[in-house]
Structure formats: C-alpha cells, structure tokens
Amino acid sequence: MWYHALQNNQIKGAQNMKPFPSSPFFFLWRYAKRNLPLFLLIAVLYIGSSLAEKLVPYYFSKLVDLFSGEAQYEAIKGSIFYYVVMIIFSGIAAKALDLAGITTSDVYFCPRVYKQIGLDTFDYLNHHSIEYFADNQA
C-alpha cells in the first residue's frame, strides 16, 4: 500500500516541494530570513566593530595635530586626555564587538543554520518518488 503511494507520488507534500534556490546568495538568504534577529544582530555587531576600528586612526590624527601646533601643554592637557581615552575606548570597543559577533555567529547562528539545512535536505529527499532515485541511480 505505502509502496504504491510512493510510486504514485501521493505522499503529503510531495507535489508541493519547492526546489532549493540555484544561486548561493538566495540559498543563504533563505536561512538568514529564518533567523533574522540573529542575522541582524551579527550585522550590527560587525558594523559597530568596523566603525570603532575607524575611530582609532581618527583620534590618533587629532592627537598628532595637537602636538604639531605651538600650544602649551596646559592649554591642550584636557584634549590630550580626551583623545587618549577615546583611542583606548575605540580599540577595546572594536575588539569587544568583533568578539561578540564571532561568538554569536559561531555559537548561535551557524549551528541553527546547519541543522535547518540538514532537515530541509532530508525532507526534500524524503518526499521524492522511487522513480527519482531509480532514474538518478541514487
């Protein structure tokens, strides 16, 4: 009985199977949409890390500009302290955001996507007919 249902492709969902996307971008986007909050969090963390990394050279250039002028130490003391603190803060923030992005990606996002790809692949192959496997020598 069940063999005839397999041969006639009458198993639930067999007629409505959607093929996997042919483009790698759309294939990955399919799973990014399923995990959109995690995907957006990773994107925000990496963008924040990149911005913080760009601030370090900016504050270094401001510090060099302060020293290249003719101003006395007492006049620029507050600015020096501010720029040094911002350089340290930007460097630490860049590394912290980068580490958070890597951790979120490797610990939470990737295992979920790997599991979903495995389940979708199993489901996709499970709903094929016997003729599919016979014709493709699978």
Our Rg estimate from Cα atoms comes to 28 Å
Pattern of helices and strands: HHHHH
Strand elements, count: 0
Structural class label: mainly alpha
Mean pLDDT score? 82
Query: Can you give the helix content as a percent range?
Result: over 70%
Q: Regions with pLDDT < 50 over 5+ consecutive residues? A: 1-7, 10-14
Percent strand: under 5%
Taking the alpha carbons of the first and last residues, their distance comes to: 23 Å
Q: Concise description?
A:
This protein has helices at residues 2-7, 24-34, 36-68, 73-126, 130-135. The chain has 138 residues and is mainly α. The two termini are 23 Å apart.
Can you describe what's shown?
- This protein has 138 residues and is mainly α.
- It is 80% helix and 0% strand.
- The chain has 5 helices and no strands.
- It starts with a helix and ends with a helix.
- Residues 1-7 and 10-14 have low confidence and may be disordered.
Protein traits:
single chain, 138 residues, mainly alpha, 80% helix, disordered N terminus
Topology readout:
Blueprint: H1 2-7, H2 24-34, H3 36-68, H4 73-126, H5 130-135
Helix pairs in contact: 3-4
